[in-house]
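Posting for a labmate who doesn't have an account.
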Amino acid sequence: MAEHATSTASGDKSAVINIKKYANRRLYNTATSSYVTLEDLAAMVRQNVDFVVTDAKTNEDITRSVLTQIIVEQEGKGQSLLPIKFLRQVIGFYGDSLGGVLPRYLEHSMESFSQNEAQMRGVMKNAFKGLFPMQGMEEMGKQNLAMFENAMKMFNPFANQAKPDASPSATTPPPDAGNLDALKTQLDAMQARLDKLAKDRS
């Protein structure tokens, strides 16, 4: 089915494609008049093809739940991009007063990460031309580490505020080891993606 998603991607990417989901859980691409799989939809996402998924019977927009299914399927294939601690933190925000802020923050963080990713791809492109600026990669790594540290602080915005009985000379507590482990996991996942990119270009 992947060829149908690919052929659609080569067309007008500005048009939003309607994917209908039937009671038998089959997904139908109305643009190509063909059935597709979750893997096909994942490929469309990677190709920046915009689509919405609607229930064929009720016409309800179920795009969010289908995209979540794609993430679950991808995570089950071995390439785990979402650390367990991160998932626990997200679940903890359901029903929380700050839950309404989290989606916008995560969206902004991913946009920033995507911009950083584009710079990293540019560095990798230069690497294959024989120009491998190690200092550039190191600097990029520092930027990503700082970004993830800021993200973790956002999840606990009151962590760095002084306690009522704290003295003015009290020093800031050291970073939590769990947060550092989460950052390392994110960086390992990023390195894996870079390694895969290198293999694909070789």
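Reply:
Got it, the structure tokens are right above this. Strands lie at 17-21, 27-29, 34-36, 51-55.
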